[in-house]
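User: My collaborator sent over this chain with a note saying "see what the structure looks like." That's all I know about it. Can you take a look?
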Amino acid sequence: MSVATGHFINNQRHDDTDTFEDRSPLDWSLKLADVSRGNAETADAALRAAHDAFPGWAALTTHERGRYLTRLADLIDRHVDDLARVECLDMAMLEESLRLRVIARGARNFRAYAELAQNYVPRKWDSNTTHNTVLRMPAGPTIVITPWNAPFMLSTWKCAPALAAGNTVVLKPAEWSPLSCSLLMDLVAEADFPPGVFNLVQGFGNEVGAALVAHPLVRRISFTGSPETGRTIGVAAAQNLVPFTAELGGKGPFVVFADADLALAAERAAVMYDDAGQVCLAGTRLLVDATIKDEFFELFQSALRRHVLGDSRDPTTTISPLIHPTHLARVEGFVERARANGDRVIFGGKRWKENGLWYEPTLIEPRDNAAEIVQREVFGPVLTWQTFRDEHEAIDLANSTAYGLSAMVFTRDDARAQRFALGVRAGTIWANCFLIRDLTAPFGGIGLSGVGREGGDYALDFYSDLKTFQVKEETTNG
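Assistant: Without extra context I'll predict from the sequence alone. Here is the result:
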């Protein structure tokens, strides 16, 4: 099928003579496209279009904006198969998962935020002889920069509340997987969005991305990616006093107590290898009660044997290749440095095939908790294995990295689960489950995992300027 490779600005495609190659992780010899490579001029054109469109879009009621978002959601639902096929080729997430769950989540994002914006109930109270009301005001042109993993879903997760709040948007997807976001723009045009409301620019972060976040017309920035890039964007945002959110990855603890349903915990632990471990919310540090470590390890290995490495288009495949040769080399570097450090590779630790981007599911027992393999995000199919003696040590280990995006705890003791949730520093904590999400819940990280919260009304508040409206109470002469 055909996918446009130009930028989308003012509802028109703009092709650059300067391009970059986009190749498929499923077969690196397969070039998918030559994609337009944006620069500072591209960024300026997109932001001026968003700036010019902002007053008209902001003036619409939430119900009027909601009709556009709902129309776009309907179109996404009708094109799930095409979107799944393209994203599978472009970033190698399992096609069946994309078709059955991930792409449809994009449609739900637009519907959910349209509804949330329409149902907003402003806070009201009386004080000091005044009636007070908190009002939301659209903030202005918004930059959304998304990562290469699950690019379609994550783009809709951020763009939907920005648009519902009354902001215009410039989306920049990652250069390693830009095609499904380009297809989204075709649906934006089909949904008849006003020109300039929803724009797309493509290219590299240090070129068009840097120009976008530093532009004086920007009023909000939302980013998902690495801590290093997050710091750079934070500096640019601070220079123009622009609020920004950043979700910057994780190193989640996966904690199994002796009283847990060990079979369930083992099944969930094996899921941490899904999508080749390229999931920021994954629990990559297995922390297991020392008294049940052997029993749990056998169950974990049994669950892992049901995994199948292969072509992401094959429904029997459960573990996909890594996104890019550069990323494969990065994952290999972590494992080789762990070996050199004296950490024990329990299983895995090598490429699955001589040719291709697959890496075997790997488990490493670190020499100590200060090891790099414990403390830094690998973002690949590499987990670590540690044991603990008691609840206090489990919480200490869970909190022992600079990250704080997610955590998982498996126990049948409700009181223990509550103590764990209170004691562990993470933006999301799951007890006896994983990756069950509610769109109205706050989402974000602590420490190196980011700043700010999105999700539900938290996102709509972020994409708005809040103001207090005070009216003097009427008085009568007695």
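A starting point for your reply to your collaborator: The first helix runs from residue 40 to 59.
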